[in-house]
Amino acid sequence: MKKTVFSFLPLFLAGYAFFNSTAVNNDKPAVGATQLDGPYVLYRNEKIHTKYIVEENGVKLVKTDSVLLAQKADVLLTVLTDEPGKTFTVKLKKELNNEKAEFNKVNKQFVISDIEGNFGAFRKLLQANGVIDENFNWTFGNGHLVLTGDFVDRGNQQTEVLWLIYSLEEKANAAGGHVHFVLGNHEIMNMNGDLRYLHGKYNEGDSLMNEHHMTLYGENSEIGRWLRTKNVVEKVGHILYAHAGISQEVNTIDIGVSKINKLARPFYPDTTYKYPNLETDILFGDQGPFWYRGYYYGAVKASKEQVDSTLSLFKVKHIATGHTVIADTISMLYGGKVINTDVHHAKGHTEGLLIENGKYYRVKQTGEKILIKE
């Protein structure tokens, strides 16, 4: 059964002033203006167009910068943080390639899920636990940061969250580490126009920019192109990561990590919900890896045998998910075989999972570590 979804088109408003500039380095969105949102990077007519929402003299406006594609390496984006007056800068990647989905011999991992546009919780958790420093530089060495989906919707800083993840990828790679961004149902929803959970700020911004939200996450946007390179399942060390989990239906079709991602990727922005085969239909339905909830509740809850079957099929020791909050802390179920990393970040219960030297810890925004498995 496919997940029921609805699309909501933002109302486009006319009559707003637009700033235009040929400046390449956008250190400040506009002289005398306060940045509210952005940047949004779009590719049109052999040019790169960068849009910011700003406020000037109490009026919200759009500032747009346009440069030739040949100047891409010189574009410097300014991104807000949760701290007033503090920003960070991002350079556009030279190229985008589909992510690898299997990584062996990983000794140190830091796992977070379901930030949902809460930049402050995300930043504090990363900084307190040595993943980044106060200037958003990577400090986790050869460690792997694993993000298991739903980093957008509900909160009012999803743009900033996405640009932080984007910027950390190359910094991590340079240090021998890696950032994994496994997509959740809400990233898929933003790409296919299901905006039920989008913060109202973004509906207003879309109207100001005279852009549909799907365009801002579309194949001609930098964020949209980047999201399309991500996976919906990954194996990192001995752990299988999926935003929601692996159902018995997915077990039954018996396809590996690579094929799941290959089948799913073309349909991230699909709005028809009509798939070419049973396998893809299952992946995008209620029993798929970014909608399933059977580990935690439902009429047919996952059995121990089902979990063991998944571990055997994917040749892993654990399955880690987000998607479903079951406690205010990181939780281990099924004898430690299933790890739930979804917590109420917006309610102040932010935690991450640290795996180091074979030991598993719950970690907090204070940097406190609580051993949960060794």
- Major pleated sheet: 6 strands, mixed
User: Mind telling me the CATH superfamily name of the largest domain?
Assistant: Metallo-dependent phosphatases
Structural class: alpha/beta
Sequence stretches where pLDDT stays below 50 over 5 or more residues:
1-28
> CATH architecture of the largest domain, please?
4-Layer Sandwich
Averaged pLDDT:
92
Number of helices: 10
N/C terminus separation: 39 Å
Overall geometry comes to: globular
The CATH class designation of the largest domain is Alpha Beta
Question: Into which percent range does the helicity of residues fall?
Answer: 10-25%
Q: How many structural domains in the coordinates? A: 2
CATH topology of the largest domain: Purple Acid Phosphatase, chain A, domain 2
Report on this model:
Helices cover 23% and strands 25% of the residues. The strands form four sheets. It has a six-stranded mixed β-sheet with strand order 7-11-12-13-15-14. It has a six-stranded mixed β-sheet with strand order 10-9-8-16-17-18. It starts with 17 loop residues before the first strand and ends with a strand. It has ten helices and 18 strands. With 374 residues, the protein is of the alpha/beta class. The chain folds into two domains: 18-91, no CATH class; 102-373, Purple Acid Phosphatase, chain A, domain 2 (4-Layer Sandwich), CATH 3.60.21.
